[in-house]
Amino acid sequence: FKGGDTCEYLLSSGRFLGEKVWQPHSCMMHKYKNSEAKNCLIDKHIVFIGDSRIRQLFYSFIKLINPQVKEEGNKHGNIPFEDKSASIKVDFLWYPEVNGSMRQRIKSWTEHSVAKPHIIVAGAATWSIKIHNGSNEALTQYKINITSIAPLLEKLAKSSDVYWVLQDPVYEDMLSESRKMITNEKIDAYNEAAVRILNSSSRNSKAKVKVFSVSKLIAQETIMKSADGLHLPESSRDTNAMILMNVYCNKIMKPIDGSCCQPQPPLTLIQKLAFCFFTLSIIGYLIINLIHRNNYRKSKSCTDLESGEERKPAISTPNVSTLEMLLHSFCKLGLIMTYFYLCDRANLFMKENKFYTHSSFFIPIVYILVLGVFYTENTKETKVLNREQTDEWKGWMQLVILIYHISGASTFLPVYMHIRVLVAAYLFQTGYGHFSYFWIKGDFGVYRVCQVLFRLNFLVVVLCIVMDRPYQFYYFVPLVTVWFIIIYATLAMWPQIVQKKANGNCLWHFGLLLKLTCLLTCIYFLSYSQGAFEKIFSFWPLSKCFELNGNVYEWWFRWKLDRYVVFHGMLFAFIYLALQKRQMISEGKGDPLFSNRVSNVLLFISIVSFLTYSIWAGSCKNKTECNELHPSVSVVQILAFILIRNIPGYIRSVYSSFFAWFGKISLELFICQYHIWLAADTKGILVLIPGYPMFNVLVSTFIFVCVAHEISQITNDLAQIVVPKDNSTLLKRLLCIAGFFSGLLLFSAVQDQSRH
């Protein structure tokens, strides 16, 4: 850890990921769009002053504002640019040498009567080397001139952003005869002089000229592609311009995936209260622990001198143990949340951009599949989608999704479409699992509902508070929560139809199908009526849960993307349980699900369907068009997988304990990755050990998995305490929870008002 000034890293160090993606050391660089660049630079005046290399940087910079600009200006003259829509002025001033003329121009900006540019980008040296044939006298004069300019630049740096661009190396073999005297040795000497002289008299960090030295590193990798050996190729110039934009704009625009130059966000009121709560929990747990240990020592088994028998200590009361468990859970949770905050809110650990390669995605996939097959065991039961099998399914899907996120594979459309199926499969299991429970058990009690809602939402609510993120940010949890409520409402609504009732009269089956048809109609209507959907979820306080960036569009998009798959899961559960009840399927150990002939036909159809979907997903060219078809066709591959996994008796009788272990903590893994495995809210990668990418992934993954497992245990422990089975106690707890959320809404309103 070398301090939190990521601007210095951005301007001075980094490396290429692949051929064109520049990765600054320790932080993430945002790729600015034209609209973002205009919003940042509105009413600003930027000046580029120097030689032809600075002119190239000028053109790349203004193309970020207006990509239609052509490089048609006078090569050896001043070039103005203005964007009237945003009142942005960018000027290039032709001063190829650091001399009296350049000094006079810079001095004019220091006068009080003249409006100073907001950003000044300066640099020159190659002309001095060329004109004076690389003489030592020219270098001496350069040092004298830059010494006279330095105080003026430092004075301007008090109110403006001033950058001095060091000279890039040249590709000497490609230089024309008139430029042969421009050698890398000479360039290094000029750069060394500029670095030594600039800021030598300035002690105030705010009045420092920022030395733009990263361009040298970029040029070392790309100058071979130069057209003349002197000027950088266009891609390198664009990278330099983007770095310049990040240095100035990140602190203004605060992009999530642009951690360079961003200050640490201040603690909000809610975060401060959470910090106090966890601190008190830790202190409370330590005090109770000390008291218990002290009591244990006092009441330790001692021999009764009269009878010679041992007297055993009194057993602690259950209330004390419950309180201790509560404080112990919050104590551990407080330490874990501190780690979350340090990883993704404090500027303590480094963050890097993702970079996709096929090998970075497919090699880990093959590795975990081999591990999963290696840990194969027999299942306790051989029913379709038994508990071990669904845990296994969740586990391998979650691992694939994690690899997808850390490798940045969303840029590769075929992989993206298959990952969409995995997310849909989670929701399919939501429909299947909850429908099966309510249909078989007929338990519509408040206790069951509260248990499910608590287990789904506990971690996300804590993260919303600690990490200062809206509920909708963790989109998957709102999605499964709303679908659980929809499933519950559909089946609990009068008339309540459960398996026990339907067995007595077959007409109840048609009643349930009618309910499912009504549900499908509502889904269809809402999916094609964005206005109605947004009105429903824009009412306060629902809007506080489902708004992201001031609207509910993101929530509508996420819901619409997998709108039918939960219904498909419910329908599949209904058909499967009906077939099972009528003994139309065989679920014995080693037995095929149907007769041999039917099983072979269904297996063949399933394999063909599975491969057909993969071929279609692989041929996708447009993400928007494929997303439109996805809700209707994703169920094909899901059902095909279920049949392939369950029709053969042997395959149905075994499962991977490796995948099942991860499946039991899949929800925690999905949520925790946002902040302690990935970084910048999933946009980048957390770097605990810089310089060793593989070792860093191993260490951060180990910590991440351990934390997810621990949070899963904490959630289970707290669920037993917060959601008791006794109805009167549960009612009191629900009132307390309602009070907690009311207070949270109040503090959130105060917080929002103070921000505005």
UniProtKB/TrEMBL annotation:
Its EC number is 2.3.1.45. GO terms for biological process: carbohydrate metabolic process. One of its GO terms (cellular component) is Golgi membrane. It is a multi-pass membrane protein. InterPro entries: Cas1_AcylTrans_dom, NXPE4_C. It is found in: Golgi apparatus membrane. It comes from the Eukaryota. It is an enzyme of class 2 (transferase). It holds the Pfam family NXPE4_C. Residues 253-734 form the Cas1p 10 TM acyl transferase domain. The chain crosses the membrane at residues 269-291, 325-343, 355-375, 396-417, 452-468, 474-494, 506-526, 561-579, 600-617, 659-679, 685-709, 730-750. Residues 22-92 form the NXPE C-terminal domain. One of its GO terms (molecular function) is N-acetylneuraminate 9-O-acetyltransferase activity. Keywords: Acyltransferase, Glycoprotein, Golgi apparatus, Membrane, Transferase, Transmembrane, Transmembrane helix. The keyword Transferase applies. It catalyses: a ganglioside GD3 (d18:1(4E)) + acetyl-CoA = a ganglioside Ac-O-7-GD3(d18:1(4E)) + CoA; CMP-N-acetyl-beta-neuraminate + acetyl-CoA = CMP-N-acetyl-9-O-acetyl-beta-neuraminate + CoA; CMP-N-acetyl-beta-neuraminate + acetyl-CoA = CMP-N-acetyl-7-O-acetyl-beta-neuraminate + CoA. Belongs to the PC-esterase family. CASD1 subfamily. This is N-acetylneuraminate (7)9-O-acetyltransferase. The gene is Casd1.
